[in-house]
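Archive transcription. Copying these from loose printouts into the bound notebook so they stop getting lost. Printout 1 of 2:
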Amino acid sequence: MTETFCPMPWITQSTRNNGDLRICCQANVGEDQGLIRKTVPGKPFYYFVRTLVKYNPSPWLYIHNRLKGKQTTEMANDAFHSGREMIKNAWVSKTALFRCTYHDEVSWPEHMISEMLFTALEHAEAYYKKTKEQQKVFKEHDYEFETEITMKTFADTEEWVSKIREKYKAKERIIGESRLTLTYFDQWDFHSVGDVYNAQDANLNEARNNPMMKQARLDMLEGKWPEACTRCKNEEAADIRSRMRYENERWSTGKNYSVFNKEIAKEITASDGSIDTTAIPTRLYDLRFGNLCNLKCRMCGPTDSSMWYEDQVKMFGETYQDTRGIVKLTKVKGKYKPVDDIYGWYEKSSIWGQLEDNMPNIEHLHMVGGEPLMINQQYELLQKCIDSGEAHHIIIEHNSNITNIPDRAWNIWKHFKEIQIGASIDGVESVVEYIRHPIKWSMIERNIQALDTAEGNYKLWFAPTIGILNARHFPDMIIWALEQNFNRFNVETWKPPVTAHPLHHPKWLNMKILPLEAKKEITEHYESCKPRIRNLINRKTDRGPGQKQKLYHTTIALLDQYSTLMNQEDWSDLMPKFWELNSKLDDIRDEKLQDAIPELYELIKHTRPS
């Protein structure tokens, strides 16, 4: 594992698909998804919605079951769906800062208590109204159900938070944290932050010195992991090359980029974590231009791909959660679209002028979608780089499904220092066709060959996302890549033939959910593929014995790392959720897991609920 330092909080700016600014594209599994929020003054009062529930036939049975996460009586699920959606939206938007469900043996010995802390009365009243709608359902099943709104001062709220935190730390008759049910969440430390900076209208330099960015810098200078950096932390724990490690390699050698390291960071960072944004301009932009896409990959969703809208409605309904709130879909000329298209932020945005002003300092433009090669505005920006004479010092990077490369892209790319493309290909033949619907393998093969022989300075790599669907297939893709003898794809002498990334979300597609016996077979399959991998590497004529040995060791290390990550935790309780949602997609798309990936199906079919 490398030192806990990354240049990104100093020299990078990153957006989500909706334009929200964040510390890094990898922060999607970290605290608050790494979003950069504006500072707001603390509020004098906070509002609580408290609910007391007692099961009259047997209060203690209900309390025992509730604390164990079990149901006491069956109640219609649809009665609570909208309430759960409201809780999730309040959690994401930070209009609610705390929620807990616990038992107080002294004050309310026969009741379970739920409390939710809101920043404003209007939000508390809306949630109170929703809980009142549920009151009738509870009473029909012989429950007592009372709910009320109370108000506390800032000091009293801090005291309440402290007491609940102590109760939670001691595991004292309180329900644990769950990102699925949100029965407990603690966001009180966000009481002094407000709306997220959005690239549509934000002053980018101002956003670079917000409190979260300053604290991340201070943490890294002390060798600590910032709260937003959970993804890299987890990957490094499995010895997987995280984005942090890639960025340190990128900015440490002075080969293609100016040098930026921890020593420089110490010199330029003030005691409060701030930096002089004029003296230290942004050098790398990581920009997600909306969700326009021509594929609807299984691990994505409507925030990542506009092609997902129809399937979203069929699977979950016309609304879904985004960091900017609940998005509602409506049908326009036979196709679903958001009522408020938050993903078109870049069409009328102040970001373009700010990028042009900083063009002489830009060293790297990482542009993502959706499918980035479909976004017209980015080509206009790249043409301005060419016209201004700045293209020669800028490296362009795309994460692309490489299904549709327009002529305009080929012509523009020739002018830049280097074109880097991570091809989002998660397997070969039927595996990738199943994961990245409606992709066709024959089209991918043609574009791989076109990129591998194109005019210009290219650095290309395969960037599979490894989850439950392709975990077993992973070494087979490595073998396929070794068999092709590419000119440009993953051709660095010692690096593995693919540059993989673990799938973290959605959890129901994470490889950690595989049952233990399936994990054992997959681990054995990885071992059985190593002789074939060694044989293919030894056949290569463009490397000496030492280079072949190093390539072999880094390649099998990659398999070992993913085996370690897969076996780190047992999430097999999510297999029913996998079957529920994956089967729905199969029905919608007229596909079958057993036909597309039969080896996986045979490993897990016994876990399918009857």
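Printout 2 of 2:
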Amino acid sequence: MLSISLTSCRISHRTVVPAAVLLLCLAAVTATAQRSPQGATTFDARVELVTLTVSVLDDNGAPIADLTPDDFIIFEDGTLRETALVLAPDQTPLDIALLVDLSQSMRNADWRDRASDFLEALSSDDCAFLVGFSTTVGGSMWGRPDDEILVEALRQADAAGGTALFDALLIGLRELEAADTGGTLRGAARGSLNPHGGGAQTVGVRANNPCPSPVPPGRENDPQYLRRKAVVVVSDGADSSSRNDADAVLTAAELGGIPIFPIQIDGGGSGRQRGGGRRGPRGGMTPLPEWAAGGVLPALADATGGKSVRGSMAGYEEVLAWLRGSYIVGYYTTTNSKFGGNADFTRHEVHVEVRREDANVVHPPAYFRPTIDTEAAKYDVEQAGALIAEGQLDAAVLILNKALRADPDYAPAYFKRAIALADLGRLEQAQRDALEAATKSPGIADMHELAMLISIDVGDSKAAWEQAIQAGQAGASLRPHFERLDAAGPAPDDFDARVSAPTIMVARPYAETTNLLLDTALAKVFQTVRREIAAAPLLGVVVDPARAQFVMTIRGDRLSNDRPRRLDGQMTVTELSGREVYSKVLLLTDVDSPTRIAADVARFLRDLEDKLKRSPLRVPG
């Protein structure tokens, strides 16, 4: 029997591609297939369609808008890749975040009319997200470039206060990332861009002129909905009051794949040491990171495939030219190669050439690929579930093996493989997988119950009772299983106390910025905290809010770039009523070491156990 999975084709940077491209992707995946001894087809190398924003101008600074796939030459990590997708500027409208510095140092700068003219020069099919910032990030609004609301807001904006440049850049990047689903910051019809002035702080657009343009459900593969994205920031580059730092912006910009075009105004600084850092806790400017020694804004432009220009009319016109000459270019690669980066992403160098002597090309110098592919693993598990239902158990196991190569920590893959292996009579292997699933994702009643039943079948009474305790905490009814459990062996002495232990639901971490490295580190912490709570003798972890007596939230404030990477944040525990019972600064010394994370978390949980012993509990009904 032939069992084929097509999930190995992965599209980078959340890019939507035409159906024809997906067919090409299917062909590329098929080419990587290998016949297994059992006769099933498996895929060892995952094929990925990487998309880049590539801008091309001629020697006169005019966009070259008639290029085809044959005109592009693409190298990834020094290896020539086949160009699979080219969408010209007139095929793909633009979502642009226009960030305007309204700090005191911009008061006398001549920028309002030029910024307004720049906005109005964009295409009527484009969407603009306008943001004002000074000491904090102020009002923001989506609209069409010709919308008078945007132009009026620019011309009425006042300049005062400090400069939260880095915070504004992160908000702009975040909003562009969310544009395909409708954005996150839409509100009233009118307002002010000024954080220090009156008016609404978040404003939207007329209902008959909707921006951003969300992709309709079911149209994800329709090329007419594919859009380019870019950030344009008008500033003197002098950050003085951001909560976030330059490293956070660089991380978000590189991982997001969105080009940044700084328009630097002569005023408080050029983004170099005088103005490029961030005000420290004692009022001085923090030193710039090494990568920004020549200025933060020019470095961000170089790292993302943008261009840094001066704030003259010629500078605005140059940015317009680069935007009008920007293509979406895609190529196929396999994801079995690993290069520099960190434990969460690998960095891959990219070089693009155009077969035109007068072509000047700008593009990101690299892209970052996740080291795991949870979406592929999820799809494989869905396919395996259907095969199990049809009785095709061996084929299901093969697909689940592939899912765990994509994401070795994906608990549902272990859970499904345990079911298939148990039905095949391979009980010892099934128990290992069932226990692994319950360990990696504790607090799910079905997983603990399966691990309990298989442990009974293999005669492992200790594991069976441990899983019974955790299944009971998670809400499973143990009454139907007591006879079998008792026959397997005696219950542990602390059974009653553990089943009735305080139960905690760990809320998924939320990041306020687009720092994907921080988000990924928080996801690791989230999983580790749940596992450590499950292992604690006087605590229980649940995923069902109806079974929880307490809710734990984990906030990440800062992730260092130096090795070992350190995470600073906050851990808070509340009753369901919202009353806080525990809060402590979270210090994790090495987020790339599961052992170190577990040791640091265990220290907090011991303190939490003591605290909850003294807290009055209300058992959920």
